[in-house]
Design goal:
The chain is of the alpha/beta class and 264 residues long. The chain has helices at residues 29-44, 65-73, 78-97, 113-116, 147-155, 157-166, 172-178, 190-202, 206-218, 224-239, 242-263; strands spanning 5-10, 13-18, 49-54, 101-106, 109-111, 123-127, 131-133, 170-171, 183-185. α1 runs parallel beside α3 (78-97), α5 (147-155) packs across α6 (157-166) and α9 runs antiparallel to α10 (224-239).
Length: 264
């Protein structure tokens, strides 16, 4: 039986793929554990970039409702229900702890927790076929993956209420307008666009990029004085690295040459 989650490494790029296309890549218990393991393996392998994608027509149809209904209606499966909820939250914690940059590529349906756990990805690219929806409240269940914290931060409280309380569908273009995705492209160009972005990020200084990701998350809810202090520490740390000295030196040398050409 093929794994529902695939992981492979191409140089400094890790690729994590949802691999249950016949069923729309539902996020069941097995898939969640597979994702958690894949992200932990990727972090251990020191992947600088992670491409998170899915096979088939849809990125994910969200929770496995058949499995969820059985857990909800069978008193003997209460512990499995609690484990499911904890797995969702562990998935978010694991993704947040990854030191690399995570690029997610959406296409087709992206529903419920299948969307919520990707909100914390660093870069998001959506194919034109993408349709997002958070239908939890219509089914009497609730949200996960700290989406109640991040979504209002991304789109504002009023729009977050609309998306989460009404549960209406919205497409790639609206997601781009709201700032929920960075790029929209044709479906057949999705992976190419993800790889192009990955290569651009690989050109950045590794330490500085890693610290930028850490700092942006830390600053989200930290007091101003703590942010200023930590920025100062990181500025000193990065400036002392051999790679930074090399890059700044090359930039100064290039600027000097360009200035001399203009004077001629």
């Amino acid at each position: 039986m093929d794994s529902k989650v695939l992981y492979n490494q191409e140089g400094r790029i890790g690729i994590i793929t949802l691999n249950n296309p016949e069923k729309g890549n539902p996020i069941d218990m097995e898939t969640m554990r597979g994702l958690i393991d894949a992200y932990k393996t990727s972090a251990k392998n020191n992947d600088r970039i992670v491409l998170y994608m899915a096979k088939g027509k849809h990125f994910t149809v969200g929770d496995n409702l058949k499995e969820g209904f059985e857990i909800m209606t069978n008193p003997g499966l209460r512990s499995e229900g609690i484990e499911t909820v904890l797995n969702w939250q562990e998935l978010t914690s694991t993704m947040l702890a990854h030191p690399g940059i995570i690029i997610v590529g959406y296409h087709g349906w992206v529903i419920g927790g299948g969307y919520e756990h990707t909100l914390w990805c660093d870069f998001k690219i959506a194919a034109k076929s993408t349709t997002f929806m958070l239908p939890e409240l219509s089914m009497g269940i609730f949200f996960s993956n700290a989406s109640t914290k991040l979504l209002p931060h991304l789109v504002g409280l009023n729009k977050a209420k609309e998306i989460m309380m009404l549960g209406d569908m919205f497409g790639a273009s609206e997601a781009k307008e709201l700032g929920l995705v960075h790029q929209v492209c044709a479906d057949e160009k999705l992976e190419k666009r993800m790889r192009r972005l990955a290569q651009k990020l690989l050109e950045k200084d590794e330490l500085a990029l890693k610290r930028a990701k850490e700092m942006l998350l830390y600053a989200l809810d930290s007091p101003l004085d703590e942010v200023l202090y930590k920025e100062t520490r990181i500025m000193i740390e990065t400036a002392q690295s051999p790679e930074a000295k090399k890059r700044v030196g090359e930039f100064v040398k290039k600027s000097k040459k360009e200035g001399e050409k203009k004077e001629e």
